[in-house]
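Database export, one record per block. Field names are fixed; values are copied verbatim from the stored entry.
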Amino acid sequence: MKLNRWLSAIFMACLVLLSGCEIDNQTIAQNSLVYCAEGSPASFNPQTDTSGTTIDAIANQLYDRLIRFNDDNSIAPALAKSWHLTRDGKMVTFYLRKDVIFHQTQYFTPTRNFSADDVVFSFERILNTKHPFHQVSGGKYPFFQNVQFSNIVEGIEKINDHTVRFKLREANSSFLANLATDYAVILSQEYGQQLLSQGRQEEIDSKPIGTGPFKLQSYQSGSLLRYYRHESYWHNEVKLNQLVFDITASDTGRLTKLLTNECDVIAYPIAPHKIKENPNLIVEEVTAFNIGYLGFNTQKAPFDDPLVRRAVAHAINKDAIITAIYGEQGEIAHSILPKSSWAHDSSVIPIEYNPEQAIALLQEAGYEDGLTFDIWAMPVQRSYNPNALTMAKLIQADLNQIGVKVDIVSYEWSTFLRRLGQGEHQSVLLGWSADHPDPDNFLTPLLSCNSAETGSNRAFWCDQEFDSLLKLALKTDNINQRKNLYLQAQAIFQRDLPLLPLAHSKRFQARHEQVKGKILNSFGGINFAEVSKL
């Protein structure tokens, strides 16, 4: 009731405002769009960062990939107009477009079109530890290291200027899907050579050059990101002259800016049912491939003990969390995989809310007098967790009932991610939005031994049998065999419980009615390439 009264007050107050304020002293150009985002990108290169704020802001605005996903999740041409897979699945040849032009900016002017050299450069940077750009930004390529890309790819060969071939060590059923993700972007080799000659290699990830629909104009960390249209974009005519990301961490702040016309589109709107009452606003939603979870750092006490992990799981009231945090926009997660996944295990027995059982498990683990630990709550909204701080407080109250004291910790987003990757936390409220619909894209990044080394496995859990099952599942295209292997892997997960699945959710955004075109996807980042503003 308080929330509804507060929202109504905002709506009424905004009706009397003549117009929104300018974002800064620069005039927003005609036919421009302002998107209110919840956080700043941590990098300007999706190869080096998997956070949702980076992918939304960067991946589809600045870059293209060799291939992409269609709306029906099938794989479609992009920078590669076609490709050929050998019968043994160990060689993939891509035939490239000839008319693709890189961005021209204040800091770079291309002298040639996209070619096979750019493909080789982009992936050799990831694969070759002696590549002059490999160690830039710390030598971390989380997505590719999670899927063990260097173990999959034996080599990349330039056949001619417009043909490139990937040689695989063995058949891999997710290889093409991985190349279609938001992380497999193509960089400019020519730009890289320019930076190398000037001793400024680090700028490849901070002053980006791609082939995407927009090019970077300016960036103010935590405040503003400004793009201009790429006039020579190969795929379609870009209708927006300018695209501005207004970084507004507060959900109420974003809603206010939407209502006062300071933003045309906002991320993760609160109370979408209330916004729908405004005839000039549209609320969009997609069913997302995601999971919100409480991750246990299995390398730190007390969560190095599976009994403690299970005790905490029994003490958390998921029903109350869904009601308070998600409402009708989420459902309880009993498994790491959403029900829409073909590998979902419907036979999983949910961990029931049972404080008495939680107390008994704590006593068995030697914590008769209770214990204290911290929960890290992310400071930004994501579709898989719209309000981590409130969720942390609910869990804190639940655990207090069984004699467990919880300290809630949070940092600025980039600091949060950095310290999380270093394993400083005991537990964390986080989540995952899939990059493609294959089950491997949930299980490997979140739970594999390799991803524990790269940091995206926030539980730092490593089980060799679990890992072996994932690897076997990638060696066959037989869907029944793959599903059986993934069911076995999920059973190991349920036994050890390195993280507690909490919710699967929909993703929402709100826009003014004059904004036309598709922005949201069921997985991956947002895309403004075909968006217009009337």
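Remark 1: The chain has three domains: 2-42+212-280+513-533, 64-205, 290-507.
Remark 2: Residues 290-507 form a domain with the Dipeptide-binding Protein; domain 3 fold (CATH 3.10.105.10).
End of record.
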